[in-house]
Amino acid sequence: MRTTEILLTTLRQAPADAEIVSHRLMLRAGMIRQTAAGIYNWLPLGVRVLRKVEAIVREEMDAAGAQEVLLSAVQPAELWLESGRWKEYGPELLRLKDRHGRDFCIGPTHEEIITDIIRHEIRSYKQLPANFYQIQTKFRDEIRPRFGIMRAREFLMKDGYSFHLSQASLEETYQLMYRTYFRIFSRLELEFRPVLADSGNIGGKVSHEFHVLAESGEDRIAFSEDSEFATNVELMDSIPRADTGALKIARGIEVGHIFQLGTKYSEAMKANCLDENSAAVTLFMGCYGIGVSRIVAAAIEQNHDERGIIWPGAIAPYQLALVPIHMHKSQRLREAVEDLYQRLVGNGIEVLLDNRKERPGVMFTDLELIGIPHRLVFSEKGLDKNTLEYKGRRDEQSADIPLDTAIEFIREKCGRR
Amino acid sequence: MRTTEILLTTLRQAPADAEIVSHRLMLRAGMIRQTAAGIYNWLPLGVRVLRKVEAIVREEMDAAGAQEVLLSAVQPAELWLESGRWKEYGPELLRLKDRHGRDFCIGPTHEEIITDIIRHEIRSYKQLPANFYQIQTKFRDEIRPRFGIMRAREFLMKDGYSFHLSQASLEETYQLMYRTYFRIFSRLELEFRPVLADSGNIGGKVSHEFHVLAESGEDRIAFSEDSEFATNVELMDSIPRADTGALKIARGIEVGHIFQLGTKYSEAMKANCLDENSAAVTLFMGCYGIGVSRIVAAAIEQNHDERGIIWPGAIAPYQLALVPIHMHKSQRLREAVEDLYQRLVGNGIEVLLDNRKERPGVMFTDLELIGIPHRLVFSEKGLDKNTLEYKGRRDEQSADIPLDTAIEFIREKCGRR
Questions:
Q1: Distances (CA, A) of A184 to A41, A132, A189, A281
Q2: CB-facing half-sphere around the CA of A220: CA atoms within 13 A
Q3: CB of B139 closer than 8 Å to CB of B94
Q4: Cβ–Cβ of B36/A104 closer than 8 Å?
Q5: How far apart are CA A393 and CA B166, in angstroms?
Q6: Do A99 and B76 lie within an 8 Å CB cutoff?
Q7: Cβ neighbours of B99 in A, within 8 Å
Q8: Contact call for residues B324 and B378 (beta carbons, < 8 A)
Q9: Which pTM was predicted?
Q10: Closest CA–CA distance from residue A354 to any residue of chain B (Å)
Q11: Measured between alpha carbons, how far is B334 from B28 in angstroms, rounded to an integer?
Q12: pLDDT band at B230, cuts 50/70/90?
């Protein structure tokens, strides 16, 4: 891609009301723009990151045998009345009436919808366990949305739901999802911790949160370096501290949450199934959320410096920035740059060629702000010496590399062999 | 994939209120389930088809240089008041108030949002032309939703918007989108016609609809087999018929619509830009829609028989059904089937192995209903002769093929070489 072919719309300054670094940098990098309080549009650079996160989540959920569905965003009140949540949920549930005056809401989660499907479609114990997920835009009418997409009203979420004949089967899938979340956050190249958590108003007893570690995190988590013990500090009072050893405290951003719901919804909504002995069993249920759009912000909170974002390779909008110096004044350089660009693209490198007629300083500043992990600078001087100047986004110094091994060098840097 | 690992939930009969064949077959095949009038959940089999359509649309839009964005689903009334559509649109616009009593709507289209972005972000003529698209769930509060997802209230759409300094530039991108739509519907393996159309209440003067030909189509289109002339019959009165030659009339389902909007929105919302001579220009605008979820239904209207759906290969949920006969009684057959299944998967074939303990007739009926294009039957008798029984979904007769060339045979059938 060439910078003249995408909406590259960087800002020197973020609006004064952007309080946290990911909000400021996403605005400054031109990844998002606000439509209304807590409601954002994703611009092309932001969408590229969002789609990469989404793809990793989808691949790992599919690999774990979960089945993708797409449940209706607009949900009828009847189902929420049945579960009891129409009354419980409060004003964070965005309610609306259709043209005929019927009550609906825009789903913040989909327990009711999926339970309704399951009670109609699951006819035999042979169809269980079953695990479903979707990746969908959701809405939660936060009273004071803030921190950009970190605590937005409209957000992209992966929500998943599993159904079981027994608690033992639920626990098995719960463990599978735990391991799957481990793989997802590892592939996202984020430093994270799964921690014991409070299951809040979703219901159920056992739950774990997955936190991306970042100083700006809203949650405090306590973990032991000697064991696997980790918990949300909120829960510390209710946990015997004796055998936890020395605890460290860190700040985290919650990006995933898995719950053993038990029979809360299936009892209220009568989701039953006959078991092998033709006895009716109330189904056991688990639910599994990942904040897809929030991950983008959390990744920035964890990976940035004073110059801008530093994307983990797995979710960078482009792997490599190719920056020609005064290319518009040199036919010879233009041709060499074009040739290199085509060879990089041909080798599967996602490269952003900065072909704007801008001063080098302007280009460097923009490309560091938007966080491209690798940079190659190509100048007439380099062309004379048959070298390029390479700099990783976290490097202090740049280094000359030979032009004729550049492709191989970059493939290795980008993990493509 | 094995049938025991997906929610295969077929029905013998569709509900009586399902009037058209695609609605009946999507319900019977277990692709969708209704949540409320005109609002549907997509089950795993349906999502697989939807994602394939989506992927083809995305690839072709990207290849045409359009930039993907994700605009907010919930839109503030202010922008719609500016464009005038808050008053114009009528009760099909689903309006709502947030917890603070502010007016919003759930977007049926996004002209206002994208024009608002453009007027803030486009600072120089050098950034134009620019072409954006998104693939998003939308809502139109139809008074009488019917025909399943063909005329649903909630639906998945690709909407695109382009901005230009001149009418000539708009026409150039419009032509590019016309050709891109041609490629998209060709890759979807659908019989279709682009036709001259009325631009309705979206505004603007020139527009084309893309119709999938099907007897059940709601629109009548007239086209010449001697020339490229084709039009929606609604427009026939306003067109001189002299030089159109002999016309044929066919029924079509509108699955795409492209418009030259001109300056309707950019004038109302003051979307201007300085040109090369520093003169302010009101931007020209085009918009380009594709009904992603409607395509799924239209494909069925065009491709079905009395036994069920007949998917075009490009969007089939699985390419091949592998049906073992009484496998559960034969260890030897089970092993041979498992071996063949693994080799098919390893060769990139999307295969659905029917491993249920069902009679062959039940399996055949289900697999024909859900429309898998190719079928291989594997029996003990076949194992003795080293043959499999192949049948294409449109074939009258099945044919024996040698087991040792089965992979090659299927790869060729599925277009994988």
A1: 25, 17, 9, 33
A2: 7
A3: yes
A4: yes
A5: 40
A6: no
A7: 91-92, 94, 141, 143
A8: yes
A9: 0.96
A10: 14
A11: 29
A12: confident
